[in-house]
Amino acid sequence: MAKKGTDPTMDKIVSLCKRRGLVVQSSEIYGGLNSCWDYGPLGVELKRNIKDHWWTTMTHRRADIDGIDAAILMHPKVWETSGHVSGFTDPLVDCKECKARFRLDQLDESECGSPAYKGRKASKCHEDGKFTEARQFNLMFKTFMGPVEDGASVVFLRPETAQGIYVNFLNVQGPMRRKIPFGIAQIGKAFRNEISPGNFIFRTREFEQMEMQFFVHPSEDDKWLMHWREARMQWYLDLGIREEKLRFHQHTPEELAHYAKDAYDIEYEFPFGWKEFEGIHNRTDFDLSRHKEASGVDLTYYNDETKERYVPYIIETSAGADRSALVCLVDGFREEEVKGEKRTVFRLDPRIAPIKGAVFPLVNRDGMPELAHTIDNDLRTKFKTFYDDKGAVGRRYRRQDEIGTPYCVTVDSQTLEDQTVTIRDRDTMEQDRIPMDGLKQWLGERLGL
Ligand code: ATP
Fold it and tell me: Which of 39, 117, 226, 284 is the most exposed place for a label (fewest CB within 10 A)?
């Protein structure tokens, strides 16, 4: 898919998302809740389509991966064992002057909180000695289980979905009679009390992850890491994300998590710079060994052909559903000029477009609306569609371009004579006439559905 036109700024994306009801601030009527966002009717379709496509790719198309849906609240020991209670921290610093709090490693991306220094980088204030010493801040949200708020009932909102997979290793491997290598996939909410959330849905305190943990023999870890590195990058390329906007970043020894042997981020060049939106990590046998030790449950795997018993290594692919949606928004929205007229078009893979087809009667008389409704109802049995009879057809096209609808179908006077409709393509803006009868099949083929 060629993506001509200019890249939008973040401001344009945020305001378009609000205007078209894709993503809006949480609790807006009360002034909003910082870093929390609600997905509106079109946004929820977009994010669901991304998650469904990921789920289909991971669990339906592959014979070696099963899915689960674990609870968000888990036994507190899980988080002690995983190292999150002691180590899931970010370095926090306070500005002595404006009292704002920042993440030490993000001072370059943050602005000083004082109105007197508006626009000044927080790192500059740091250089000027205006900050307190860094202290470690745990990112896990705590809450209480049951009616008594005492220490015994403290539970955490999970900061990653992965642990729900590790503790269920035996519950999948046994019932599904899995042999290594195999994987377990999960999509779900995660929560992190981020010190500096921001950049719209890029860094929030409540978000969704699409994670897959692949269990392998320790001698095959590098091979599977490379396999998943390539497979995950290819997934985004297949969705039409521009290749020049994607890259890998291999973690340096200083960046590697304490449990990881090797790790790659998939980064996208957002308007605010190159940033990670998926991580592919070799987590070694750290997780299963720790849970085995702490729970006393044997989480080893026995290969009855080779008679070998071992703790499997884990290769993890960890993507953010919200960050992936942001990649699609940023990569897809283009402003272009066609024959002297400006249009905003959301060039989105048809599989993840919120609305697959819009149906218009050319005019609201002569039986055209009735016929258009019949066509819309028929298409709706298979695809999410939208019926629009308001305003000039050109304007109706523009409204659909802006939300990424791949095809618009118009019923006109010729339809009444020969049962053909016009189909207009979002990207080429070209129109075709096809028989009404074959419309559903025609669309299905082009939408890849
Ligand atoms: P960062 O360095 O940006 O904080 P991370 O390295 O902590 O990210 P991981 O723990 O590897 O991120 O999480 C895997 C994925 O989960 C990320 O690539 C991202 O897509 C998503 N994710 C993590 N934190 C957030 C957040 N605060 N808001 C939205 N998505 C997030």
Answer: 226
